[in-house]
Amino acid sequence: MDATEQLPRGQQLLLQRMIANHSLPDGEARAIFASLHGGDYGTDDEENGGGPIMGEGIETLEAAFVSINRQLRPGFGLEIITMVDTSTSGSGGATHYHAVVNTAADEVAKSETVFSRSWNVHERAFVRLVVRALVERSNRGGSNDNDDDEEEEEEPDDDDEEENEDEDENKDNNGKKQKSREPQSPGIQRADLINLRSDLEGGCKLTLDQATRVVGVLLEEKWLRVAPCTGADRRGSVRALLELAPRSYLELYHYVTALGMEADKLPQFLYHRA
Known about the structure:
Layout: H1 9-21, E1 23-25, H2 26-37, E2 44-45, E3 51-52, H3 61-76, E4 78-85, E5 95-102, H4 107-110, H5 121-139, H6 161-168, E6 188-189, H7 190-194, H8 208-220, E7 224-226, E8 241-244, H9 246-251, H10 253-258, E9 268-271
Antiparallel strand pairs: 1-5, 2-3, 4-5, 4-9, 6-8, 7-8
């Protein structure tokens, strides 16, 4: 397909849905493809001579991505890519997210205005602090600053002798109690992110309410998300762990790397090219 050819109607609709949703989970993308390919919008594309609505030979979502990219890349400097999110791999496998992104690191992709042109300089400076903090936490592997602090030992009471005997089984060869650690999330508590407003410099400042609103917008627009490991009772509270969402990695690749994201910490990306 030449870059100047019109996409089949089904591919146009699929592309529109993807752009509107920013980052689309694989399950939702496949549901959209199935509804189009299955005939919810008609089995024939009248605008293209009555052929299949998704185009000749397009039987899978991946084939549709390849076909769309043939036109998007040379014609508009855009392409559909897929991100592999392994943070949920413990609950049934990695999740894939799809998005339409720039193929080149232009000034728009690198600028703070990529988040929201309606935000003022104070809010954009605050967003930069938030993203940088999450990037730094991710580079540390999600570890907390006090992970390596040793716990103070207490003298056991006589009544605790039986419990201590059981605990002996959990001690290493040096007699120190072994710590059972769960995998750390690269997230930061919502309250701590909001309090980054106190680190604003250069005359920038935000009130508590303003900083809270900005973090809320980042969540609403899917730049941030609540970490999967956050308990259900904390997900809506200021104690919820927040982390960079798939949309940030997909659309802000150049922005997060400019803020120090290490290459080996970036998720895997899949490219749909013929």
